[in-house]
Design goal:
0% strand; 2 domains; mainly alpha; 97 residues
């Protein structure tokens, strides 16, 4: 019973939990839950968060797998592929603006 009381007494506020979550890998998900729960944003920005999270998840799965295959082919291949992707992205940004 004492441990339950100590656990309840040590409950932290939502703002302290938010501050801790900034450094965690689930910060984007926590922000999305806050935005959707309290209605702090419109539909487009929430959709942008969903798309960003989806692309980040795909990148976390495909990126290391592709880098592993490229590393087996050549030790410098993952770095060259990363430079090429960054350069193509840079060209698209320059062209878009």
């Amino acid at each position: 019973m004492e441990t339950a009381r100590a656990h309840v007494a040590s409950k932290e506020s939502i703002f302290k939990l938010y501050a801790k979550s900034i450094t965690s890998k689930y910060a984007m998900l926590f922000m999305l839950v806050l935005v959707m729960t309290f209605g702090l944003a419109n539909y487009e920005s929430v959709l942008g968060l969903y798309v960003t999270t989806a692309y980040m998840s795909v990148g976390n799965i495909v990126g290391p797998t592709l880098a592993g295959f490229l590393f087996d082919a050549n030790i410098f291949a993952p770095f060259i592929a990363g430079c090429c992707i960054l350069f193509i992205t840079f060209l698209k940004i320059v062209r878009w603006n």
